[in-house]
Amino acid sequence: MNKQQAPDTFEPDIFVPVDRWTSPARDAAERDRLWPRTWQMVCREDRLGAVGSFVAHSIMDDPVLVIRTGEGPDDLSAIYNVCQHRGRRLVDRSHGMLGHEIPCRFHGWRFGWDGSLKSATNEEDWNGCSAFDKEALAIPQIRVGRWGGFVFVNLDPEAEPLESWIAPVAEALDPFHLEDCKPHFWARIEAPINWKVFVEAFNEAYHAGETHKLGIDYRPGVAPGAARGAHGMFWSEGGGLTSYRLRGANSWKTASTVQENLWANMAHQYDTLFALTLEPTMKAADRIKALPEGTSPEQVMDTFYAAVIEETEKTGAKFPRDLTLAAWKQAGTDWHIFPNMIILPSLDGALVYRAVPDEKDRDMCTVDIWSLGRYPADYAGPEAPSLFEGFEAFRGNNPFLEEDFDNMEAVNEGMKSRGFRGATFNPSQEAQIRHFHAMLDKFCGTP
Fold first, then answer.
1. β-pairing verdict for 15-17 and 40-44
2. d(Cα 124, Cα 122) in Å, to the nearest integer?
3. Range of the domain at 364
4. Which of 83, 264, 308, 340 could form a disulfide with 104, with the two C-beta atoms 3.0–4.6 Å apart?
5. Contacting residues for 149 by C-beta, under 8 A, at least 6 apart
6. In a domain, 270, yes or no
7. Are residues 124 and 234 in the same domain?
8. 236 pLDDT exceeds 90?
9. Are 325 and 412 in a shared domain?
10. What's the alpha-carbon Rg for the chain, to the nearest Å?
11. Is-contact 289 266, C-beta < 8 A?
């Protein structure tokens, strides 16, 4: 990404009032106007591998079932997870396999995977009753779509198609073939913060130099951002040769070559984040670190890229050949898919976040974190997330992210102070967050 590619869509008003995070009126507007009208990521497609498999998901007060109905990639059905008799939640499990009909545990009404009412207990009791119309009593269907190995739903039948909604993101990230990736790890945290605080924290790198001090100096670089349709992204610029902490020591060293600088950045991710840089890329970085001093930056990158392909394919995984060095650089660092999903792409796969708001408490959200990698066909990965009740319970699992989580809790508390009027965003490095709030205002209105 270069400066010439940044569009002139930066928002002139960089101030966002605090009520966008703390107002009950904004909470209600999000509930009524945002979540029912936007595309929501439900799960990875591999959770719906077998015919009859399902995943349950809730969007505020709306429980949803997504069901694999056939062998084809688009053979998916999405329906509200609610019985049309008395309103009981139809399926209590979070995922699993369904029989050919879905029974309600209250009175035994049975529905098809498409929501059709198959039978009602003592159905003859309704003989002659015009209100008992099986077609009218079908569970409403929900729009469902796929991209990048993710399954999305939208409760609004009039919403923009997923294909055009996500097109700006897909144009940049399709070469990464995330649909072929599998989870290296998957964590779910019941986070004691507003969902927007979480999304914003991973929608910029302006914080990196001050927040992330464990093993590398991010301060010299900058990360300008931009709007891309409804979404936002940023990319990294400058920084030069960084300083880094030597492995297993408290001493620091400044990289003297491009290859050492690349190695230091990859090693820090590998050692503390456990994402973005996985084993193939780390091995490739180890190899290019030994290139002689004076090797041109172009030769370093070409050698590194070839080594990543070789190390990936040694594992039995496939490396997407349309993921060229140019495509990798063009994609930038981080993409925010409006409203609540973040993807950081890498040669090894991606780091993905999703924040789902709690339907009752604005200061709670459920956070999912996936580290995706390239693996052989027989690699299964985790079938369910590791569960954590709060950030403190997660501590000890990811040193890099724990630095971010400390900030999030402090922000969530600090913004409640009567001494805080609102956020004043950096017009360059946080432009994508200002765009996020412009999109929220577009859906929710302004007070």
1. unpaired
2. 5
3. 1-38+174-249+313-447
4. 83
5. 44, 45, 46, 178, 179, 180, 181, 372
6. no
7. no
8. yes
9. yes
10. 24
11. no
